[in-house]
Write a structure and sequence with these properties.
Elements (H helix, E strand, L loop, with lengths): L8 H22 L10 H8 L1 H33 L7 H8 L6 H15 L5 H26 L3 H8 L4 H12 L1 H17 L2 H6 L7 H10 L3 H32 L3
């Protein structure tokens, strides 16, 4: 226990039991039938299941719309928070964190009740509103952190060379902030695709997302097909993460050049 590496043992055990083992079980169940025999039927079923494919397409559509909405609201907010000239109070930053102190399910239930009290019918509009409300901080803070740490000398050099404020933003600030943007996109897009509680409460289960299909299969004891659907989701997350990591440096440097 005198070795510093020994203190990492509890974290290694935690990751092994609650991260690695569940992922291995998902893979095993995805390639098994109800009798425990190896099969590809769960994988092929997804490509022939019209309900699952339609729900997956709708989930991607809603995720794209929610991500764009969060970006449209989140980037200006992050820019204002990171600019000392526009925001001189740390309290403003805390105000964006406060909603996250409340359980997401409670926030969703409260949002649904507000819509009911106002007589607003639940549907896709209320779903996007609730998702934007829940996931907006995950878009703001990665962008805010990048903008806050950005070397201001780049913008000053561009201004000295005669660049207008809009040119400074488009040619310097925006390209350098792209790592934060891509992080925010990933943190908003993937949870939106896989969520089920928000769509259930904010649409009265009229709109089903991919997470709802997985939940229904698990609740109906269709573990194998539910695991196969979860595996598709994990693959999408993995591929998106790899692409995001490769593009960070290129986005940051390409815009300056």
């Amino acid at each position: 226990m005198n070795k510093r590496s020994s203190w990492a043992l509890p974290y290694f055990i935690f990751l092994l039991l609650f991260v690695a083992l569940p992922l291995v079980l998902i893979i095993i169940y995805a390639f098994q039938d109800g009798s425990g025999h190896f099969t590809f039927s769960n994988i092929t079923k997804f490509f022939t299941d019209g309900d699952a494919l339609g729900t997956f397409a709708l989930s991607i559509e809603v995720a794209i719309e929610n991500t764009l909405l969060c970006f449209a609201i989140g980037y200006p907010a992050a820019y204002i928070l990171a600019d000392n000239k526009l925001n001189r109070s740390a309290v403003t930053v805390v105000l964006f964190i406060l909603p996250m102190w409340i359980n997401a399910l409670m926030r969703t239930l409260a949002t649904a009740e507000l819509f009911n009290m106002a007589g607003i019918p639940l549907g896709k509009g209320t779903l996007l509103f609730g998702m934007c409300y829940d996931y907006l901080p995950f878009m703001i803070y990665p962008i805010y952190n990048v903008l806050k740490k950005m070397d201001k000398s780049y913008a000053e050099a561009a201004q000295d060379l005669g660049a207008t404020p809009s040119q400074v933003f488009l040619k310097v600030t925006l390209p350098l902030s792209m790592p934060g943007v891509w992080s925010g996109v990933l943190m908003v897009f993937m949870p939106t695709v896989s969520t089920f509680a928000i769509s259930e409460f904010l649409t009265n289960n009229k709109i089903k997302l991919f997470g709802t299909i997985i939940q229904e299969n698990i609740n109906n004891s269709m573990w194998n097909y539910g695991a196969a659907l979860s595996l598709f989701m994990l693959l999408i997350i993995g591929v998106t993460t790899l692409l995001q990591g490769d593009d960070h440096a290129e986005q940051a440097s390409g815009g300056i050049i």
